[in-house]
Please model this.
Amino acid sequence: MSAVPETLPALAERADAAYLDFVEGFREYILGKGADFEDRLNEALLAEQVRRGQPWGDVEQIREYVHSLPLGRLRDRLSRTQQEMKWFALRRSFEAQRAELLAELERYDTRGPGRLELDPNFVHPPYVNVHFHLQPGGYYKDALSGYLYHYGTKVFFRGDNDHDELHSKLVARVPAPADGRVERILDLACSIGQSSTAFRRRFPNADVTGIDYSAPMLRVAHRRAVMLGDEVTFAQRLIEKTGYAEGQFDITFAFIVFHELPLRIIHETVREAARVTRRGGIFAIYDFTGTRDKSPYQRYHRWFDARHNGEPYSQDFCDCDMNAILADHGFEVAAASVGQRSGGAGYMTHWFATRV
Amino acid sequence: MSELTQQTPEGGTPIAGENPVYLKDPVLDATVRMVVELAAQVWIERERRITLESLLEAQGTLSRAAIESFKPDAAQAAALKRERARFIEDVFKELRRIPPTA
Ligand SMILES: C[S@@+](CC[C@H](N)C(=O)[O-])C[C@H]1O[C@@H](n2cnc3c(N)ncnc32)[C@H](O)[C@@H]1O
Model:
């Protein structure tokens, strides 16, 4: 087996890597069976529901009860803490080598295979100015945002995605159009392009384009694809207004971006996907499981994540009816499986929709 | 840091501020934060020691007695002081987040 090039940015010191390794393990501990918060708090919620003789109403009711429990409050403290620790260590480590990391990106900007298309006149709409997952500077305000994001998500996925295993697995599950034609693929909100390169590997003859509004993400995406030898175009564009011609793409893809969009933009993005996906083409979405299919604890966690982990739009997304929105814009939803815990990615659902 | 308050979300769930208090008393929040930070620092040291011991053993270069009798020179002592300051700052920076009036 030939070695896969390491695309993860190197940290300044061994101690930084050990610190983040601790955070990854600690995260696993508090999310999983170690501290066993989820099952124990969910049992408490279910027992309280029985005691009250009625199902939980709105999430505010659930929140009040969880906050009355010392275990619930401690869980919140620890969840917030591990996230803050991660960014603290990553920021310090990258700051120490800022000049070198920027020079490294510059070396790759104009290299092939593939292309990087940045828009010097790009204007960021105000709604994207959010520090998702508490990432300092959000997705675009620091020139090193892409590196922060890459290492940050490595920790987030708790070892399940160190070499993009999760992206490859999810991309492999996307059905091809019934007629088998796959010439052009669009990866919406591609971040650092882990799905984009997985698509290119699955369909080596297809043109793959990844778009995102964040230039720092796209630069890391391009560097990464060049290192892997995967030919992909990365372009700075909005997913709700891509500027591509009608019916251009055989597969349009969106992995965990919809929960980071205001409802207005969710509708606009589905409309845009319907416009650029050709008839018979596939629009594949992976994202958070909807409120309807969540346990009381998961509903609580969604509120917490929204308010305390920089996911302001995620509650509205989980409350909305994606099946209906897709149908409204000319998609036939082939499958909408109830989300399962998918390792580090948490509870996800997929929508595999055909453009009719 | 007031970074978190400069965001401009369009609707959705209001975002919590920089230093939310989860445990009813900011001192308790700081205490828990420091315990976790300490655990991280302990792990860093243990990871490094295991690495070192493995390397030294493999190379047959060092005896335990040499470690016990090590005396840093001036430059090494200054470097140790800097490390100590960083260690203390990492663990106890949480103290600055306790508001003076609460
Ligand atoms: C959670 S990440 C998505 C992960 C990514 N799809 C993957 O395969 O790993 C969210 C990304 O969406 C991008 N994004 C969010 N809203 C966008 C929009 N309206 N237009 C373009 N990109 C957007 C952000 O810059 C960020 O890189």
Notes: The two ends of chain A are 43 Å apart (CA to CA).
